[in-house]
Design a protein that fits this description.
hpI Integrase, Chain A, 7 helices, four-stranded antiparallel sheet, globular, alpha+beta
Protein backbone atom coordinates (compact mmCIF):
# COMPACT_ATOMS: atom_id res chain seq x y z
CA UNK A 1 0.00 0.00 0.00
CA UNK A 2 1.34 3.42 -0.97
CA UNK A 3 2.36 5.78 1.82
CA UNK A 4 0.58 9.10 1.30
CA UNK A 5 2.71 10.96 3.82
CA UNK A 6 4.04 13.23 1.08
CA UNK A 7 0.59 14.04 -0.33
CA UNK A 8 -0.11 17.69 0.19
CA UNK A 9 -3.71 18.84 0.03
CA UNK A 10 -3.82 22.43 1.09
CA UNK A 11 -6.66 24.19 2.83
CA UNK A 12 -6.16 27.38 0.87
CA UNK A 13 -7.95 30.63 0.31
CA UNK A 14 -9.97 31.22 -2.83
CA UNK A 15 -11.69 33.97 -4.73
CA UNK A 16 -14.84 33.93 -6.78
CA UNK A 17 -13.81 34.89 -10.31
CA UNK A 18 -17.15 36.65 -10.79
CA UNK A 19 -16.58 39.22 -8.09
CA UNK A 20 -12.95 38.90 -6.97
CA UNK A 21 -14.04 38.70 -3.34
CA UNK A 22 -11.88 36.75 -0.94
CA UNK A 23 -14.20 35.24 1.63
CA UNK A 24 -12.54 32.18 3.06
CA UNK A 25 -9.20 32.24 4.83
CA UNK A 26 -7.84 29.45 6.96
CA UNK A 27 -7.69 31.60 10.12
CA UNK A 28 -11.31 32.75 9.79
CA UNK A 29 -12.91 29.33 10.03
CA UNK A 30 -15.27 29.80 12.96
CA UNK A 31 -17.53 26.80 12.69
CA UNK A 32 -16.32 23.87 14.81
CA UNK A 33 -17.15 21.33 12.11
CA UNK A 34 -15.12 23.27 9.55
CA UNK A 35 -12.16 23.29 11.95
CA UNK A 36 -12.59 19.52 12.27
CA UNK A 37 -12.57 19.24 8.48
CA UNK A 38 -9.35 21.23 8.41
CA UNK A 39 -7.79 18.79 10.90
CA UNK A 40 -9.11 15.87 8.87
CA UNK A 41 -7.33 17.21 5.77
CA UNK A 42 -4.04 17.15 7.66
CA UNK A 43 -4.33 13.46 8.56
CA UNK A 44 -2.20 11.04 6.57
CA UNK A 45 -4.52 8.03 6.95
CA UNK A 46 -7.41 9.55 4.97
CA UNK A 47 -8.03 8.57 1.32
CA UNK A 48 -6.28 11.08 -0.91
CA UNK A 49 -9.24 11.39 -3.32
CA UNK A 50 -11.61 12.10 -0.43
CA UNK A 51 -9.21 14.82 0.70
CA UNK A 52 -9.01 16.21 -2.83
CA UNK A 53 -12.80 16.28 -3.37
CA UNK A 54 -13.39 17.76 0.08
CA UNK A 55 -10.72 20.43 -0.51
CA UNK A 56 -12.13 21.32 -3.93
CA UNK A 57 -15.62 21.58 -2.50
CA UNK A 58 -14.40 23.84 0.32
CA UNK A 59 -12.61 26.08 -2.15
CA UNK A 60 -15.14 26.19 -4.98
CA UNK A 61 -18.53 25.37 -3.38
CA UNK A 62 -19.13 23.23 -6.45
CA UNK A 63 -21.61 20.38 -6.59
CA UNK A 64 -20.14 16.91 -6.17
CA UNK A 65 -21.12 16.06 -9.75
CA UNK A 66 -19.18 19.13 -10.96
CA UNK A 67 -16.10 18.19 -8.94
CA UNK A 68 -16.15 14.57 -10.06
CA UNK A 69 -16.21 15.69 -13.70
CA UNK A 70 -12.93 17.64 -13.29
CA UNK A 71 -9.92 16.65 -15.36
CA UNK A 72 -6.69 18.43 -16.33
CA UNK A 73 -8.66 20.11 -19.14
CA UNK A 74 -10.45 22.17 -16.48
CA UNK A 75 -7.22 23.93 -15.49
CA UNK A 76 -6.08 26.89 -17.55
CA UNK A 77 -2.46 27.84 -18.33
CA UNK A 78 -2.71 30.51 -15.62
CA UNK A 79 -3.81 27.81 -13.09
CA UNK A 80 -7.45 28.83 -12.88
CA UNK A 81 -9.93 26.02 -12.31
CA UNK A 82 -12.98 26.01 -14.58
CA UNK A 83 -16.00 24.42 -12.94
CA UNK A 84 -18.14 23.07 -15.78
CA UNK A 85 -21.74 23.79 -14.95
CA UNK A 86 -24.32 21.16 -14.18
CA UNK A 87 -28.06 21.65 -13.72
CA UNK A 88 -28.29 24.30 -16.49
CA UNK A 89 -26.20 26.83 -14.57
CA UNK A 90 -23.20 28.79 -15.83
CA UNK A 91 -19.55 27.72 -15.81
CA UNK A 92 -17.55 29.28 -12.98
CA UNK A 93 -13.88 30.09 -12.68
CA UNK A 94 -12.00 29.77 -9.40
CA UNK A 95 -8.52 30.87 -8.52
CA UNK A 96 -6.85 28.23 -6.38
CA UNK A 97 -3.64 29.19 -4.71
CA UNK A 98 -1.35 26.20 -4.45
CA UNK A 99 -3.11 24.29 -7.24
CA UNK A 100 0.25 22.94 -8.40
CA UNK A 101 0.40 20.93 -5.17
CA UNK A 102 -2.73 18.98 -6.11
CA UNK A 103 -2.45 18.83 -9.90
CA UNK A 104 -0.91 15.37 -9.85
CA UNK A 105 -4.16 13.99 -8.37
CA UNK A 106 -6.36 15.44 -11.10
CA UNK A 107 -6.63 12.99 -14.01
CA UNK A 108 -5.90 13.76 -17.65
CA UNK A 109 -8.56 13.34 -20.34
CA UNK A 110 -10.35 11.07 -21.07
CA UNK A 111 -10.42 10.38 -17.33
CA UNK A 112 -12.10 12.47 -14.63
CA UNK A 113 -12.11 12.28 -10.85
CA UNK A 114 -15.24 10.11 -11.15
CA UNK A 115 -13.03 7.36 -12.58
CA UNK A 116 -11.16 7.22 -9.26
CA UNK A 117 -13.72 8.27 -6.68
CA UNK A 118 -17.53 8.10 -6.63
CA UNK A 119 -20.34 10.21 -5.26
CA UNK A 120 -21.30 7.27 -3.06
CA UNK A 121 -17.75 6.99 -1.68
CA UNK A 122 -17.82 10.72 -0.88
CA UNK A 123 -21.18 10.36 0.86
CA UNK A 124 -19.91 7.36 2.84
CA UNK A 125 -16.71 9.14 3.88
CA UNK A 126 -18.56 12.32 4.90
CA UNK A 127 -20.90 10.28 7.08
CA UNK A 128 -17.96 8.32 8.52
CA UNK A 129 -16.15 11.52 9.56
CA UNK A 130 -19.26 13.40 10.71
CA UNK A 131 -19.38 15.93 7.88
CA UNK A 132 -23.12 16.54 7.66
CA UNK A 133 -25.84 18.63 9.31
CA UNK A 134 -29.53 19.51 9.14
CA UNK A 135 -30.45 22.87 7.60
CA UNK A 136 -33.74 24.73 7.84
CA UNK A 137 -36.78 22.50 8.27
CA UNK A 138 -35.28 19.63 6.28
CA UNK A 139 -35.50 16.34 8.19
CA UNK A 140 -32.77 14.75 6.08
CA UNK A 141 -29.17 15.62 6.84
CA UNK A 142 -27.25 17.49 4.18
CA UNK A 143 -24.19 15.38 3.47
CA UNK A 144 -22.76 15.96 0.00
CA UNK A 145 -24.02 19.57 -0.01
CA UNK A 146 -23.01 20.44 3.55
CA UNK A 147 -20.00 22.49 2.41
CA UNK A 148 -22.15 24.41 -0.09
CA UNK A 149 -24.53 25.35 2.75
CA UNK A 150 -21.62 26.48 4.95
CA UNK A 151 -20.07 28.58 2.17
CA UNK A 152 -23.45 30.21 1.38
CA UNK A 153 -23.89 31.05 5.06
CA UNK A 154 -20.33 32.46 5.24
CA UNK A 155 -20.97 34.76 2.29
CA UNK A 156 -24.30 35.88 3.78
CA UNK A 157 -22.76 36.52 7.22
CA UNK A 158 -20.02 38.57 5.55
CA UNK A 159 -22.77 40.91 4.35
CA UNK A 160 -22.67 40.22 0.63
CA UNK A 161 -25.78 40.32 -1.50
CA UNK A 162 -27.58 37.14 -2.52
CA UNK A 163 -26.54 37.63 -6.16
CA UNK A 164 -22.90 37.05 -5.22
CA UNK A 165 -23.79 33.84 -3.38
CA UNK A 166 -25.97 32.78 -6.31
CA UNK A 167 -23.11 33.20 -8.79
CA UNK A 168 -20.61 31.47 -6.53
CA UNK A 169 -22.84 28.43 -6.03
CA UNK A 170 -23.78 28.33 -9.71
CA UNK A 171 -27.50 28.80 -9.13
CA UNK A 172 -29.88 30.10 -11.76
CA UNK A 173 -32.60 30.83 -9.23
CA UNK A 174 -32.40 33.06 -6.16
CA UNK A 175 -34.88 30.68 -4.54
CA UNK A 176 -32.25 27.91 -4.56
CA UNK A 177 -29.72 30.27 -3.04
CA UNK A 178 -32.22 31.28 -0.36
CA UNK A 179 -32.54 27.61 0.64
CA UNK A 180 -28.74 27.31 1.00
CA UNK A 181 -28.63 30.40 3.20
CA UNK A 182 -30.85 28.78 5.85
CA UNK A 183 -29.28 28.33 9.25
CA UNK A 184 -28.22 24.94 10.52
CA UNK A 185 -30.94 23.44 12.72
Amino acid sequence: MKNYANDRILSVSTASAHNKIFFREEKKLKNELLRNIERLLQRQDIDRYFKLVLTLQLITSARISEILSISQDNITESNLLIIRAKKRSEDRICSIYGINDILYLIPSKPYTLADYYSRYAYYRDCRKYGIFAHFGNNQNASVTHYIRHQNALSIKKAGFERDITKKHLGHKSSKSTEYYEQQQS
